[in-house]
Amino acid sequence: MTNADKPLVSVMTPVYNGEKFLAECIESVLAQTYSNFEYTIVNNCSTDRTLEIMESYANKDKRVRIHNNSVFLGVVDNHNNAFTLIPDRAKYCKVVGADDGLFPNCIEELVKVAEEYPTVGMVTSYVLDGSHVGFDRLPYPSTFLKGRDICRMRLLNGVKVFGGPSNSLIRSSVLKERQPFYKVGNYHGDTEAYLDLLQEYDFGFVHQVLSYNRRGKDSRTTAFLRKVNSYLVADIEELTRFGPIYLTAEERDPRLRQATKEYYKFLAQSVLEQRDKEFWNYHRERMRNLGVGIDYFKVGRFLFYRIIDIILNPKRTTEGVLRRIFKQSSESNS
Description:
Helix 5 (about 145-155) crosses helix 9. This protein folds into two domains: about 5-220, Alpha-Beta Complex (Spore Coat Polysaccharide Biosynthesis Protein SpsA, Chain A), CATH 3.90.550.10; about 230-334, no CATH class. Strands 1, 2, 3, 4, 5, 6, 7, 8, 9 and 10 form a ten-stranded mixed β-sheet that branches. The chain has helices at about 20-30, 50-60, 75-85, 105-115, 145-155, 170-175, 190-195, 220-230, 230-245, 250-270, 275-290, 295-310, 315-334; strands spanning about 10-15, 35-45, 65-70, 90-95, 100, 120-130, 130-135, 145, 170, 200-215. With about 325 residues, the protein is of the alpha/beta class. The chain starts with 8 loop residues before the first strand and ends with a helix.
């Protein structure tokens, strides 16, 4: 297949103050074995050397294009803004975070699956998440799954294979018919968008490690999400919004009760750990967006249970504290 026969892929990197890893990210895109792509880097009013790095690559490679935002946008808004820049002739879109990177055959393998299955709206793969392979719960060789089936697997069994923006290839037509693609104010807006689009489209998967996600202190967004443990409340949001679509009431209700229980146990523990104002503001806002708010009676009930457990099981409590301290120390030194 000649370059002219290959579908055009629009690669996007929305970036704000990404000088530390941006060159590495750009190099990984330019090293792709798939050649028919255009690469747009969206500079979100950066104040470091981001623009300088972008320009140095754009001057050397005609596939690299620069877009400078006139005003600063939030993370989600900047991604949605990037999607409006996809050229009409592009059949697919591939986002690459400025902290992340692609392995050389990434786009080629993702496009291969998308071309083979025309009903697929998105394709993902295994991911090197820090030093671990992630999103590896699908049995081989499940290259194609009905959209409804993969969403049921996620909501019922916690099978997480979406991988995030840097790991997904999406049909441009899907993005254009859903604007804004990510829900404003939701750091997990990518997952929400995928669960939405898979109501109408199917899902493709490549059983290879094709991309790299940076973790811990080297990723500001990841560090924040881990700090507030955003994933617990995200489980409640997914079950609340998409449970009625993909699950029966008998399937959804026990899953939602369990997710809610785990969430309030976590909030109770967070009271004991004296989490800061930013932490509590984040969770108040997320629960308000669900239309329920934080149930402080439940927080108090689980806090009471936790205090009783500490009193009756001091050895286990001490061991748990030491494990958390060791884990935090390991992450900060990694």
